[in-house]
Design brief:
The chain has 423 residues and is α+β, with helices and mostly antiparallel strands. Helices cover 22% and strands 31% of the residues. The longest helix has 18 residues, at 41-58.
Length: 423
């Protein structure tokens, strides 16, 4: 939309910032898990950035360059979260390592000059891969990482030395051209300009350059952004929760499939049909979410997501077909992806109480298929001779190293599993 007056341009910029600050903390898992191993924090910081870029590159999107000021803002907030045992985008003045209330304030404090910043974060992760998997399963976070507007990122990672489960991954993203325009001499020529979009409140940017900076990255990214992307493997099968939560009536559901139409290329888009198939059979228990029914009003009119309301299966191929209408023409997109393949023998527990047999000294994956939308594994009890590592809220890896044990039980709030030990 073309803005004709300076005060309206300023208002648009401020509203745009409010929209960009959409991603919130992925909610913690409600399971009892063995103490996580200490992370190699510098390595995991590199891995986190590399994984985001690997995903964007696989989707033929621009990769995100490293920015020292965004790194500093992200690291300061990660330190704050761990030091204060908090999990929020906002900081409280007076608490340890406070550098600014909002992501925008912290970016300014770190030396970043443009107000165009967005932030994703997660807590209680054992490594970068678990952080990225969780954030990409969370639809609001995902759209933040896959925005066609951003082109640079800062990453912060912190882990409590005394409590390894107290960890934080923080990602702060921005637009390098807007940051550059806020770093050079203020516009003082004739014509329309914008202000209050830089760290220096009175800094002016010629409106034409401001609009160009907003759209430059978009025109160099794909017209349509799909996730999971075509041919993607090792897709997590489940979504649990997010803050804010797009599925407040579900504690567990399937991994959402999303499509975003780049608004540089599309003005009006309408989805006619959005279908998910497993072995040529349509998955019917789904919810299509768009701007009209997003409970937290975070979606734009170019963003759509299909939520399978039941978990997807492990090591299974799925196909997606989307029919849409844009600029007066109908079109169709089809693509495929495959869910995670277990590396150990997989046992699928389908009842409230069940019995399985495992081999001593070997690792097994135990998957409690949810009995309903609220059935996650909570308050797990197991013998000290069993080594349990949770993969997600319904799946864990089990290894029994004591050959003298012939049977034992694993008990949670809602499920009981009797385990016999074979040779």
């Amino acid at each position: 939309m073309r803005i004709g007056f300076v005060f309206l341009v300023v208002l648009a910029a401020l509203l745009f910032y409010r929209f960009m600050d959409i991603a919130a903390t992925a909610s913690p898992r409600h399971v009892i898990e063995k103490q996580a191993l200490p992370m190699d924090v510098p390595f995991e910081r590199i891995q986190a950035r590399a994984e985001v870029n690997s995903i964007r590159e696989a989707m033929q999107m621009q990769t995100l360059s490293q920015n020292d000021h965004l790194d500093a803002a992200a690291q300061a907030h990660a330190d704050y979260l761990v030091l204060n045992h908090e999990s929020s985008h906002n900081e409280i003045e007076g608490h340890k390592n406070f550098t600014g209330t909002r992501p925008l304030d912290r970016a300014f404090y770190a030396g970043y000059n443009a107000s165009y910043v967005s932030e994703n974060l997660s807590g209680k992760n054992k490594n970068a891969q678990s952080s990225i998997d969780g954030l990409f399963s969370a639809i609001y976070h995902r759209f933040g990482f896959l925005s066609p507007s951003i082109d640079e990122i800062g990453v912060g990672v912190t882990q409590d030395e005394e409590n390894s489960q107290n960890s934080a991954f923080v990602y702060v993203m921005g637009n390098s051209e807007l940051n550059r325009l806020c770093s050079v001499k203020s516009f003082n020529g004739f014509g329309k300009y914008v202000y209050k979009v830089c760290r220096e409140k009175d800094h002016r940017i010629a409106e034409k350059k401001f609009r160009k900076a907003q759209t430059y990255n978009k025109q160099n990214n794909p017209k349509i952004i799909l996730y999971p992307h075509d041919g993607q493997n090792e897709v997590p099968p489940a979504f649990y929760s997010e803050i804010p939560d797009p599925l407040p009536d579900h504690e567990v559901s399937g991994f959402p499939i999303s499509i975003e139409f780049n608004d540089y290329f599309f003005k009006n888009v309408r989805i006619s049909s959005f279908k998910l198939f497993k072995d040529d059979e349509e998955v019917l228990n789904v919810l299509l979410m768009d701007k009209t029914n997003d409970p937290h009003m975070r979606f734009t009119d170019k963003q759509f997501a299909l939520f399978p309301l039941e978990r997807l299966e492990y090591n299974t191929s799925y196909s997606v077909v989307v029919d849409y209408r844009a600029e007066g023409k109908s079109a169709k997109i089809m693509w495929e992806f495959t869910t995670k393949k277990p590396t150990e023998t997989l046992h699928i527990v389908t009842k409230k109480e069940e019995e399985i047999t495992i081999a001593s000294g070997e690792s097994h994956m135990i998957y409690f298929r949810p009995l309903d939308a609220h059935d996650i594994v909570k308050n797990v009890q197991f013998p000290s001779t069993a080594d349990v590592e949770f993969i997600d809220n319904n799946t864990f890896k089990l290894t029994l190293n004591d050959e003298s044990v012939k049977s034992f039980d694993i008990v949670s709030d809602s499920r009981t599993l009797h385990i016999k030990v074979g040779s």
